[in-house]
Amino acid sequence: MIKEIPISYSSERIRKLLKELVVLTYAEKESKEVVEKMQQFWFYFEVKEGKIAGVYQSDIHRIIIKIFSRPAGHILVCCIHELAHHVDFIIRNETRHDHSFYQVFYDLLISAMRINLISKEQLLAVHDTKDVENLQKRHGYISSWEIPALKQKKRKAWIKCRSSLEKKEYLKKAKYQYSWFEKAWFKEVPAEQIQVEIDYLKRYFKDKEFQVETIDTIKFSVMYYVSLRNGRIHRELLKERGYYYEAYDLGKFTWNKIINASDWQKEKEALNQLIGLKTRILLR
Predict the structure, then answer these.
(1) Which residue stretches of 140-215 are H helix?
(2) pLDDT in tens, 43-91
(3) Which residues contact 74 (CB under 8 A, 6 or more apart)?
(4) What secondary structure letter does DSSP report for 217?
């Protein structure tokens, strides 16, 4: 049985950008039918902190991105990596980390840089995989890559807003869409309408409660629930770190805390100093 994963607004906006990369990269290289197949893939976000940041399931054309404690640029590179597996599979009916794959990956990365989705600096900052090493081995130093100029169309931006329950009606009225994954409301707006939207939000929200994101400033504002078992002997230290006993309905005898996903590695290092803890990361 195929595990069903709910789609969020957050994953959908990235899926649309990945499809754009496919068209930009292959519209003039492959037939219309092949390019259409390249754009047919499922794309999901799922929190599962571990060693594998993303996975491509070729039998059902499904990409799952799992780790959100890394910087946004790292996550986007991971998305493009898994897209490369899908495109590679469509081209030759198999995919593995060989020369053919890294050619596809390189071509998609160049397109991503052409539309400002990622930068060379963000790619070079990816240190926990061999992608940078393998790309430079085949295509030269990333800092020396030539990025063909692209006549940029006037792009829309996204406005992201966090809202309390009593204020969400203001966002619904303005046709914002809720992303369960980031627990935030989104609206895609034309560049010339951004100030109008900001003026509207300022009537009901503080400046820190909303932000404008463009294609080159995408962030993933994910909140993790850290749930611990066997924390009794460490209860005083856990209290100091902001954990609450049996909070957030995460089970009996648990110590729990909400953190930004970007803070997880630092939190993990601190918890590793405490013997006997069993740790879960959840997204609710």
Answers:
(1) 168-173, 194-202
(2) 999 998 888 899 999 999 999 999 999 999 999 999 999 999 999 999 9
(3) 53, 122, 125, 126
(4) S
The pLDDT of residue 284: 84
The closest alpha carbon to 56, from 18, 9, 111, belongs to: 18
State percent of the chain over pLDDT 90: 92
Q: Which residue reads 């003039």 in tokens? A: 28
- Structure tokens, 198: 């900001």
User: What long-range pairs does 161-167 form, CB within 8 A, spacing at least 24?
Assistant: 161/185, 161/186, 161/201, 161/205, 161/209, 161/210, 162/209, 162/210, 162/221, 163/205, 163/209, 167/204, 167/205
- Please check whether residue 160 is in contact with residue 211, taking contact to mean a CB–CB distance below 8 angstroms: yes
In 10 A of CB 188, how many CB atoms?
Answer: 15
Q: Burial level of 55, CB count in 10 A (0-12/13-18/19+)?
A: middle
pLDDT score at 152: 79
Instruction: Give the three-state DSSP class for 62.
Output: strand
Structure tokens at 227: 């749930």
pTM of the model: 0.94
Give strand ranges (E) for 119-209.
157-161, 177-179, 184-189
Phi, psi of 119, deg, nearest 5: -120, 165
Tokens describing residue 153 = 């169309």
- Over residues 103-155, the pLDDT tens digits come to 999 999 999 999 999 999 999 999 989 999 999 999 999 999 999 999 878 89
